[in-house]
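Our preliminary data section would be incomplete without showing what the modeling component actually yields. Below, a chain of 420 amino acids is followed by its predicted structure, encoded as tokens that our downstream tools consume directly.
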Amino acid sequence: MEADQFDRKLAQECARAFSVSTGLGCILSDVHGQVFAEYGYGCQSCRLCEAARLPRERCVQAQIYGMSEAQRFGGRYIYFCPMGLTCFVSPIVGEGGAQAKITAGPFIMVDKPDFIACELEDGAGLDGAQRQAAEAALESIPFVPPQRVEPLSVLLFMAVGFMNNVSAENRLLESGRAGEIQQQISSYILELKQEESPAPYPIETERALLQSIAQQDQAQAQKLLNELLGAILFFCGGDLPRIQSRLYELLVLMSRTAIECGADCERSLQLCHEYRARIGEFTTIDALCLWLSGVMQGFVHSLFGFAHAKHANLIHRCTQYIATHYAEHITLDSVARMVYLSPAYLSRVFKQETGRTFNEYLNGVRIRKAKELLAHRELRMTDIALLVGYEDQSYFTKVFKRTTGMLPRAWREKHLAREG
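Predicted structure:
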């Protein structure tokens, strides 16, 4: 990265001021994760991954994923690191797009005992020396109540915002990439003009484009998109409203492809709604084509470029929800709706990431909470079952025995006898 692509000194002051004023760690880094500066307790200072023997590359991958999502969804994004700690990020935009990012965190949003139980024991499967090292590292990590996280992410976004005051459209038009795209479009239009009877619309090229997006082949997708743009411009002439209509149809198809391959359904549909209004704002065909190219790349990046980080973030959102709502009626379907995924997709990813099915994990959390309540002799079994999310006491007893090898009442007596 060239030093003059963004004001590094100003960015460092912004990160330092945010860290000092909020008490959170802040890292200024480039789009590939190279750290320029860290203030307070940031990812560089964190020793939790080291204690769990996870490679630091996974943290960098999570940071890049967070920045990618921030670019897609309004300039800020809250995400979970591989160990379940929370971070949020805002990108710094320079002449070539996103040039750097300021990441705040990591920090904890839940009580430390719950974090140890849910993330270190259940999630990472740590025990013995690894768990002791992780708990020691946890003592240095800041705590932020959930209700403060969203306002803090907005504050960082606003602090970074004044550095991002150059029009993205003008930057793209001035870049070498813009000239390359226009040259490819023009070349394809010339080919069409030389054909005696060109097909009215290259539907096979459209299908190939969608397949390239699904396979995350960005170079091939860009080439095919340029060909489609050339065909649309050729057959629509200079009729801008007609061109805008055809491009919106193409946007819908790209969005559907991304959703089918695992992108967040609700977010993708919302973006399509926003894109429809955005298309109408362009007054030149060049600017419209360049913008669509960026949108296409966003759909490609939303799929599997950061698959592990994306899945880890998703699972941490689910486990955090279970940790705070285990006493309620929770199902795979209801949690899948919360994270905008199909139950089948969430079930598969949950098993891949945790090594357990969704129901196995949920029951594990509930039984652990039940053990805590069983230590209080005054609580009845029916009350304990309800307090941990089981409406049927007999089912609670069955799950408890299957999990622990003992009936709840026997576990209570053994536990109280040992404590006494």
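Confidence is low (pLDDT under 50) at residues 166-177. Residues 169-301 form one domain. Preliminary results of this kind motivate Aim 1 of the renewal.
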